Amino acid sequence: MLLYGPAGTGKSLIIGAVTQQIVDLCQSKGERFGVVNINCQPINTLDQAVFELVQTVANDVDAEVGVPETGVSTKRKYRRLYELINEHYDSVIFILDEIDLLVGRRTNEEPAYSKLLYQLSRASNTNEIEGQVSVAALTNDPKFMEDIDGRAESSFNPRDVYFPDYDANQLRQILENRRDAFRPNALTDDVLPLVSAFAAQSHGDARKAIDLFRGAGDLADERDDEKVREEHVRESQEEIDKDRSLKLIEGLTTQKKISLYATASVAYLSNLSGSSVPSPVGFKVYQWVTDEIDADQMTRETYVKYVKELSTYGLISTARKSRGRGGGMYMEFTFTGEPEAMMNRIVDDTRLGAIADQEDILQSVVNAQLREFHK
Ligand SMILES: Nc1ncnc2c1ncn2[C@@H]1O[C@H](COP(=O)(O)OP(=O)(O)OP(=O)(O)O)[C@@H](O)[C@H]1O
């Protein structure tokens, strides 16, 4: 089977629940049904994946692993895997969670997941495993099968099971079952519908819906409020959104980070009221910062382009302004979130740390430039 769909739509949960039912059913008939479940995310190579499978089975049946992790061929590991399975199970299902992440080390070779799927799904045909073999591959990637080798595709040839996003009703039912995480009567009536509606609107991910539900509870708890109310849900959602946009910053190139940092510092360190940043001032501060840390210096157009780009992430808004007759036009940047939080996020991982240590000087540069601009 190929279980695919976006994150948090219940793929792992459902395959776990269904196989548990099969295990129980088989047990009542005196059959041994093995469930061999691994998550491929931390695994780098085919060899490690096979070893992980051996370990998982050995653990489950309380047997010796029987092969060393390194220093023997992958073939030996497969052999040990089949040996353990033949000894202890009548039939088996391999569950390979996050299968698309098992790519292996070499780029121009058949990916590791393709080889693994090929081997496991044909192990029954080749009699390496004596009983029935099922393979369930779980992935978020709808195009997963496109990268599978033709040979693997014809032996794996899965039945597709698609897991769509949950809608608000489904999320509500899922959360209903988690009411017991709260004290009796702690939830006001609008909390569950609101969490479900927010979660359905933005992603349909049960894991995130549960996080939001818990976040609202945490907030009420921190404030010693008797009940969890709508406002706790809204604030908790705001926190999550804020954190998400800050995370975006981490992925920016160094030049974009410097541009954003300089602009944010004008908003944060300005002695003037209001935190909008005229682009000529932002650019002067940007030049000062690049000089200080000895980084390349882009033109003013590029600087403005970089900062404007951030408005597409909703971090800032931009407006065109006129300096009055004969003064020309400039852009004005206004931060939607806290400029200080952005600056902190940036210095976490760049050379800009050196600038953060001289905030006094930066502040005087910012204010000198602002005075100059408004003269
Ligand atoms: N139908 C459901 N009923 C109750 N809880 C659910 C349901 N679906 C998902 N959950 C909960 O949501 C969380 C995520 O589910 P799960 O790990 O199964 O998703 P997934 O589709 O495998 O996601 P990923 O691709 O991110 O691994 C888990 O805590 C799970 O218990």
UniProtKB/TrEMBL annotation:
Highest taxon in the source lineage: Archaea
Function text: Involved in regulation of DNA replication.
Cited InterPro entries: ATPase_AAA_core, Cdc6_C, Cdc6_lid, ORC1/CDC6, Orc1/Cdc6_arc, P-loop_NTPase, WH-like_DNA-bd_sf, WH_DNA-bd_sf
Record Gene3D superfamilies: 1.10.8.60, P-loop containing nucleotide triphosphate hydrolases (3.40.50.300), Winged helix-like DNA-binding domain superfamily/Winged helix DNA-binding domain (1.10.10.10)
Similarity comment text for this entry: Belongs to the CDC6/cdc18 family.
Pfam families (UniProt xref): AAA (PF00004), Cdc6_lid (PF22703), WHD_Cdc6 (PF09079)
Keyword terms: ATP-binding, Cell cycle, Cell division, DNA replication, Nucleotide-binding
Protein name listed in UniProt: ORC1-type DNA replication protein
GO terms assigned for molecular function: ATP binding; ATP hydrolysis activity
HAMAP family: ORC1_type_DNA_replic_protein
Keyword ATP-binding: yes
Domain Cdc6 C-terminal: 260-346
Sequence positions that bind ATP: T9, G10, K11, S12, L13, Y166, R178
Claim: Cell division is one of the keywords in the record: yes
GO biological process: cell division; DNA replication
Organism: Natrinema pellirubrum (strain DSM 15624 / CIP 106293 / JCM 10476 / NCIMB 786 / 157)
